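#lab-general

N.A. 3:47 PM
ok so I finally got the sequence cleaned up, no stray characters, all 507 residues accounted for. can someone with queue access submit it? mine expired

B.Y. 3:52 PM
send it over

N.A. 3:53 PM
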Amino acid sequence: METNYLIEMQHITKIFPGVKALDDINFTLKPGEVHVLLGENGAGKSTLMKVLAGAYTPDAGTLLAEGREITRFDPITAKKNGIGIIYQEFNLVPYLSVAENIYIDHMPPKMGVLVDRKQMHQQADKLLHDMKMNVDAHALASEIPVAQQQMVEVAKALTHDLKVLIMDEPTASLSEVEIQQLFEIVRSLTKQGIGVIYISHRLQEISQIGDRITIMRDGKYICTKDVKDTSPEEIVKLMVGREIVDLYHRNRQKPGEVALKVEHLYSEKERLSDVGMELRRGEIVGLAGLVGAGRTELARAIFHVDPYEKGDVTLLGKLADKKQSPRDMIERGLSLIPEDRKRQGLSLILPIAQNIVMASLSKINPRGWIRAAAEKKCVDQYIKELNVITPSSEQLAGNLSGGNQQKVVLAKWLCTKAEVIIFDEPTRGIDVGAKKEIYAFMDELVKTGKAILMISSELPEIIGMSDRIYVMRDRKIVKELQSNEATQEMIISYAMEGAIEEERQDG
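B.Y. 4:20 PM
back already:
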């Protein structure tokens, strides 16, 4: 019997420079179903959905909406075909009201050229009421909680003639109560025949909300199954079933004294709960977990970017005051290489040289005046050591490749003479050659007695580079593993819902 699909994606391929992000992908969506799209970070899930939403044009393949082929790929055409998407990074304008955000691209007119704000707020109030959401339509988007911002994104999508709703990691920042509230909205949509594509890493959500699952791995289609016919063990195996690439060379050694210790750390803002960990000189400690687990939030709290109410952070034997700033932590020997190098790690409009010295000006120029020769010595040293490919240290950082930009960020923090370095996604978006160089340099750092905390979503990288591994889930550390005993299956099972029948081996 032929199935009438809302969406059919046939043999979709998408190539970025040097990377085949999608390789011959097939995907279908039925009316009134929740189709869960699964895969590790980097599997290609979001890229596939951006093709469907018109943000990307595929290099090959066919897209059908209710049996009609779509040949034009842009967000407006996608909306006309009833396709809406809620990205993991919200697209709300913070200084507009909730109502203005909901109707931002089709505000009700008044006298032809004005906006009928009264009607707009009435419509927004009714829509939010129908969703059983207690949200003030007059409030600024920046003033409402993250959970309500998520609901506003849903409301925004519903103002169009919606047939397909794509939700990318919708529960990453929600509490359990808020998750259940979102699920009720999803169920009400499917009762109306709307198809929902649901991207998630949270294994426990699949049986609650999903009808079918499709699993992707390394940009390839693996399989599609009914949720009722799958088990957590099978899903984990299908998601991580690949060999570890032989990129990682470590000169492992006996670790030295404790360089960083975190005890019973609580943060209300970031919902970190009783986090404890330690990091020794001469070792790389991996921090694994899925989107929303709290890894970056923990790093920011340790670095004193974000506040924490309870707990202790001890750096190089000295207890850090909760009121200290990131500048204080830098002076004491800590550095944080952020996951978003372009927005948080670099100034793209400044030369390489200025980027490298910007975090260590007070150390290079202790008396307050510029010592050009000392700055140049530091810049030249790290350009050479890290093999930054550039015609000159005066080249703008924005003109470098991703791998060379990452090396400049690393150089900036090494110039501070840090003893403890936090790497947040150190090789995201860079090529294999640059990865090898960064891995080798990390190994050299710990050989000299530095201590590294490495946050990564790439499980082969975590296992290959780490001496020990902490796994985070729901804003707390749930497991510590030795790298020689860890497997990808083991890490992802703890990260998703705890070990699957952990006692099986003991029994």
